[in-house]
């Protein structure tokens, strides 16, 4: 099978809600990552066949195919088309999968893939809220097929997180400790300069704004997000703004442009699970990926699993038997933030740089997505 190589990967700093990137137009935010990855790679931007970017809530500044508007806002050639996709939290990871498939199939030789999200400007669920304002119900109300299959059960990530905590017997205290560890690891990584190479500063912001010294007393005092529940804001990913982009290339493009691959895409796949509990799909998706590749979880050197909520990762750890010391080693979305449409590319950028820093071989990335879905990508450092 033809190979898809990762030539470069870069991301913006991740801004907190109403923080340093809040007033950056989404097209300019996406443009920043696109232009940075092209410039770092040294390729002629006119040789890029396609831009594929993830983004949710595609309204306002994120409407009208923000992949295309970002590319043009970056001053890059009009000859390169763009496609914007929405696979919820996995949008950017799926964008990378589509890019890899295009390269592996021989359809394209050079593809920029990633994602962008400004959650300060366009709050989460804005598209649903806008539709409600026009008189449309939520995405599930009124569907005879959905109601016949799932009844009137709540379709909510918060409900799903609570279901996971209950099913796996995760106490509030255990989940709080996980969240605290996320911040501690992120702060340690920042202090050591581990993120410096992967971040291209923007709007005066040099580093991620999310990590902070945990206040255990304050964390313990927080009220649950749902009445009688265990999940608090401290155990959830932060609302954030950011962008990230990777350049993928074929063997022909590597030779033609004199490129040096940093990694290759070893495996891409996706799987689904119960859409009501919603957030458990990384478990069967990981099992599927390992079975297809013949690898074991012990063969994986670094794991990035999105910390949508603490119980998502804790349940995954319990089911896979992965070594926690290999998982989200520099913190996760609880500390570093989760700019929805960009996170899949942000995590892969971090995973690539960490594999290089350690001289390690395999990295596995997975993340839960609305609808009970999950992507898995395994990359091999070269």
Automatic annotation (TrEMBL):
Limits of the Thiolase N-terminal domain: 5-251
CDD domains: thiolase
Keyword check for Iron-sulfur: no
Molecular function (Gene Ontology), one example: acyltransferase activity, transferring groups other than amino-acyl groups
Keyword Ligase appears in the UniProt entry: no
Residue ranges occupied by any Thiolase C-terminal domain in the UniProt entry: 260-381
SUPFAM superfamilies to which the protein is assigned, alphabetical: Thiolase-like (SSF53901)
Domain of life: Bacteria
Active site: 89, 338, 368
Entry keyword set: Acyltransferase, Transferase
Membership in a protein family: Belongs to the thiolase-like superfamily. Thiolase family.
Protein name per the record: Acetyl-CoA C-acetyltransferase
Species this protein is from: Nakamurella panacisegetis
């Amino acid at each position: 099978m033809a190979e898809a190589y990762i030539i470069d990967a870069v991301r913006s700093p991740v801004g907190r809600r109403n923080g340093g990137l809040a007033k950056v137009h989404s097209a300019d935010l996406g443009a920043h990552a696109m232009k940075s990855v092209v410039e770092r790679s040294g390729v002629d931007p006119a040789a890029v066949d396609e831009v594929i970017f993830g983004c949710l809530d595609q309204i306002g500044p994120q409407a009208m195919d923000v992949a295309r508007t970002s590319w043009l806002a970056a001053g890059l050639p009009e000859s390169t088309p763009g496609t914007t996709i929405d696979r919820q939290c996995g949008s950017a990871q799926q964008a990378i999968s589509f890019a890899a498939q295009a390269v592996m199939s021989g359809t394209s030789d050079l593809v920029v893939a990633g994602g962008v999200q400004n959650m300060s400007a366009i709050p989460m669920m804005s598209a649903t809220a806008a539709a409600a304002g026009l008189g449309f119900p939520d995405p599930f109300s009124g569907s005879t097929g959905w109601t016949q299959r799932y009844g009137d059960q709540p379709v909510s990530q918060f409900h799903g997180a609570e279901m996971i905590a209950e099913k796996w017997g995760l106490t509030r205290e255990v989940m709080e400790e996980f969240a605290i560890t996320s911040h501690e690891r992120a702060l340690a990584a920042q202090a050591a300069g581990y993120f410096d190479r992967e971040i291209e500063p923007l709007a005066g912001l040099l580093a991620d704004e999310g990590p902070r010294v945990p206040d255990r007393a304050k964390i313990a005092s927080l009220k649950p997000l749902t009445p009688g529940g265990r999940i608090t804001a401290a155990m959830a990913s932060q609302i954030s703004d950011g962008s990230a982009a990777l350049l993928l290339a074929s063997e022909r493009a590597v030779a033609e442009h004199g490129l040096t691959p940093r990694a290759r895409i070893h495996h891409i796949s996706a799987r689904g699970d119960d859409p009501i509990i919603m957030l458990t799909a990384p478990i069967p998706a990981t099992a599927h990926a390992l079975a297809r590749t013949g690898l074991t979880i012990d063969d994986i050197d670094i794991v990035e699993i999105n910390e949508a909520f603490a119980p998502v990762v804790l349940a995954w750890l319990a089911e896979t038997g992965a070594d926690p010391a290999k998982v989200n080693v520099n913190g996760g979305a609880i500390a570093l933030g989760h700019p929805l449409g960009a996170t899949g590319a942000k995590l892969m950028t971090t995973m690539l740089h960490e594999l290089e820093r350690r001289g390690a071989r395999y990295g596995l990335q997975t993340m839960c997505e609305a609808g009970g879905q999950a992507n898995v990508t395994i990359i091999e450092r070269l």
